[in-house]
Specification:
Length: 189
């Protein structure tokens, strides 16, 4: 009877130790992901894409560490406990545009200067009247994202090491730059 009790205690301690090891590995991976910078990789079609590792958080950790994102999920009408992934990407677009300004007349008497510019990503229309200027700017871009199992956590263990979840994001506009990107995988407790 004592032997059975001892074996049961060892099994319970072993399982507890395994859970703690997995939790430590998850937290270590999250810490490395939070401190890592954005990596840029060249895709097969020659464009640059940003790549990051995926954070693995539980719902209560998401609420504590990223309250703004948690509020965004709730504001979208989604129960936070039902969410599985949350992605945030910040894109900055910058382009210098030179176009011709031409004289024009509106309302039969008011003389103004107008200009237009259009390419695949931008449409700009402007009117310069006296000391004021009116602009209408429209931009179009496509954000592509993929979450995949990427490089191994411990490459020296070869096939025995699990792969990290990674995110890759690219934009179609060559004038756009990805400044920040993160994916949070929400785990159930």
């Amino acid at each position: 009877m004592l032997l059975l009790l001892l074996v049961s205690a060892v099994i319970v301690l072993w399982n507890s130790n395994q859970r703690l090891r997995l939790e430590t590995a998850r937290m270590t991976s999250n810490l490395q992901t939070l401190t890592a910078s954005l990596d840029f990789v060249r895709t097969q079609n020659g464009k640059l894409a940003a790549q990051t590792n995926v954070l693995l958080l539980r719902t209560n950790e998401l609420k504590q560490m990223f309250p703004v994102q948690a509020k965004t999920v709730r504001d979208m009408g989604v129960n936070l406990n039902r969410a599985t992934q949350l992605s945030t990407t910040v894109i900055e677009t910058q382009k210098n545009i030179v176009t011709i300004v031409r004289d024009s007349i509106i309302h039969d008497t008011i003389q103004v200067k107008v200009f237009t510019y259009a390419d695949r990503w931008y449409q700009i229309k402007g009117i310069n009247q006296g000391d004021s200027q009116s602009l209408q700017i429209q931009t179009t871009d496509t954000l592509k994202q993929v979450v995949f199992k990427g490089e191994r956590e411990k490459p020296w263990l070869w096939i025995f090491s699990p792969r990290k979840l990674q995110q890759r994001v690219s934009v179609s506009n060559p004038n756009a730059t990805i400044k920040y990107s993160s994916v949070i995988q929400i785990q159930k407790p």
